[in-house]
Amino acid sequence: MSEVICGEFPECVPRLRGDGFVLRAHGPGDLERIVEQCQDPLAQRFVPLPSPYTHSTAHDFLTGYVAGGWNRREHAEFAIADVSDTYLGSMSLKARDHDRYEIGYLLHPDARGRGLATAAARVALRWAFTELGAQVVLWRAVGGNEVSLRVAQKLGFECTSLLPGWFYTQGEYVDEVGGTLTRARFEAQWGL
Ligand SMILES: CC(C)(COP(=O)(O)OP(=O)(O)OC[C@H]1O[C@@H](n2cnc3c(N)ncnc32)[C@H](O)[C@@H]1OP(=O)(O)O)[C@@H](O)C(=O)NCCC(=O)NCCS
User: Fold this and answer.
1) pLDDT class for 1, splitting at 50, 70, 90?
2) N-acetyltransferase domain: which residues (predicted)?
3) Residue 146 burial by Cβ neighbours in a 10 Å radius (0-12, 13-18, 19+)
4) Is residue 9, in this structure, part of any structural domain at all?
5) Is the pTM of this model over 0.90?
6) Residue 10 lies in a domain
7) What is the number of structural domains in the chain?
8) Residue 103 belongs to a domain with what CATH number?
9) Which of 51, 78, 115, 167 could form an S-S bond across to 23 if both were Cys, CB 3.0 to 4.6 Å?
10) Which of 49, 150, 159, 161 to mutate to test the pocket of ligand 1 (most atoms within 8 A of CB)?
């Protein structure tokens, strides 16, 4: 990531435009909706989040995890916002190697069910494949997260891995499902 990201957070975060939304740097104005999103039972079940999730947790996420991830070039964490700049969710790309990344997504409950995760992930993946030099991107989820699986499949991920007892969430290990998407497969399906 280090070759293509210039400067410090938040200036280093590119603005990636989609149809009716933008991927941008997280800001303090997103905090309230991040708390609502991360207290949601589905988010708590399917994403390894702290519990309870408080305003202080969200503050640490913004100032520590997000800013530090960009500054250390370890992970690119985008906020998804609508045309009036309301926070809708987060999209992340974690560096696993110089050309290998892992994608993660989470939406505020009121932004789900209208194709946003798929559309926003497509924008993030195109950026990863064209700007970051990604060759393969990993997706993984708690077994039984059918919506996340559907999003990954629509994006073109080949979701063939099942790892019993491998995903740690809410204090226990549960089954993990996973898959990968190559640059060539993304290009064939969506273009670059
Ligand atoms: C997973 C999540 C990001 C998906 O966001 P979204 O914008 O609602 O997803 P999309 O609308 O792009 O796609 C959802 C797909 O799942 C399908 N779906 C919905 N409920 C489903 C179910 N119970 N079983 C199977 N598929 C389902 C939808 O029909 C849609 O597919 P389609 O376009 O072919 O009809 C969002 O639901 C979320 O934040 N969930 C909680 C956190 C989470 O699970 N994050 C992922 C961790 S890996």
Assistant:
1) confident
2) 21-180
3) exposed
4) no
5) yes
6) no
7) 1
8) 3.40.630.30
9) 78
10) 150
